[in-house]
Amino acid sequence: MVFQVFGFGLLIVFYGFYFYKQLQQKTQEIRTDQMGKGRTGKAKTIELILTIAAILVPIAEIVSMILGITYYPTWIRIIGILIGAVGTAMFIMAASQMGNSWRAGVSATDQTPLITEGIYEVSRNPAFLGFDLLYFGILLMFYNWILFLVSALAAVMFHLQIVNVEEVYLKETHEEEYLRYQARVNRYLGKKKS
User: Fold this and answer.
1) Which helix (H) or strand (E) holds 53?
2) What is the pTM for the complete model shown?
3) Which of 42, 167, 26, 16 is nearest to 50 (CA)?
4) pLDDT tens digits along 22-44
5) What pLDDT does residue 59 have?
6) CB 158 within 8 A of CB 135
7) Chain-centroid distance, C-alpha 194
8) First-last CA distance in the chain
């Protein structure tokens, strides 16, 4: 029961902030959800599969929590709580520091400034990393094959979204500024050696 409380708590905080941020932007007439909008070909396919995976993961997580499914000992599950909490904190910091530049997906029409300060000084994609850490943490708490498969699919799709959509957009939009940023900060975590 303790792990269910922590698991649901992490989901409530993470997705509560996610939807709060969307609602906050909606009141400012900012369309946060840009997944699949104005895309064609490979980029549209990636964003559509990512959207499906991002819906399936919390469903699988909730079912796993309700059923209390797990194959791991308590100490691994405790590590899962810690990893999930770090992921949640990272996502909240990332989305907060992005301010009104934050989007789910890439907007073909909104040009926002490149954010390189705060948590973005050590990760070019801390929001995506936050999702991955939350998924991994909950997977450690409630491990089962179905949860593993949908979490792995979502993580792969997040990576493909970054490489094939986000980075392409940022290079086209911010040109040299993004290339300099890319040269000094790793995609997921850490600064590059000069």
Assistant:
1) helix 41-67
2) 0.91
3) 42
4) 888 777 775 655 565 666 788 88
5) 98
6) no
7) 28
8) 48
